[in-house]
Amino acid sequence: MQAYFLGKLPLDWREPLVARIGWLMRVARHLEVPIIATAEDIAQSGPLVPALLQELPTGAAVHDKMMLGLCGQPEIMQRIEATRRRQCVLVGLETDICIAQSAIGLAALGFHVGVIDDATASPPQHHRAGLDRMAAAGIIITNTKGIYYEWVRGVARDSAVKSAITDALPAGLTL
User: Which residue segment(s) compose the domain that 35 sits in?
Assistant: First the structure.
């Protein structure tokens, strides 16, 4: 999520998108779900937006992604493989390009891939096309609420997370 790409979206989409991704990052950190951050061509397109940089775990690197699909970059794939997990959840920009190419590439490598509909975006005419392309390729399309409950899995863990993360939910998100 870089300002350059965020600037392509309608103004009223930007803050809610960043807020949902930031909230998911807080939940992931609390649940010890690994976070792997990428940014496309940082020298040209700039760093991650500050609101998301601050949500990264201490010492986490932001990988400078020079391939549209992250599977084409060995150091990013090494980091993914180092988690020893076979499930990936993708958020960010742009749904029809980097998210779609990354999701389809990961699935081809045997990963179970989920894409968060309301935590990804492209300019309006392209978001749905990207989601449809991924769904046709067998990628799971869900939303912020859906992945939250997938991660917590039960009432006790849900209560623990809600007790630990007490900031307001992003606008429009209900749990």
Answer: 3-164
pLDDT, tens digit, 9 for 90 and up, residues 47-100: 999 999 999 999 999 999 999 999 999 999 999 999 999 999 999 999 999 999
CATH number of the domain enclosing 130? 3.40.50.850
Q: Is residue 175 part of a domain?
A: no
Whole-angstrom distance, CA of residue 15 vs CA of residue 61: 23
Domain count, the chain: 1
pTM for this one? 0.95
Listed in sequence order, the residues at least 6 apart from 132 whose beta carbon sits closer than 8 Å to its beta carbon are none
Pick from 75, 65, 123: which is nearest to 96 by CA? 123
Q: Angle 11-31/155-164 helices, nearest 10 degrees?
A: 110
Cβ–Cβ contacts within 10 Å for residue 106, how many? 22
User: Is residue 145 in a domain?
Assistant: yes
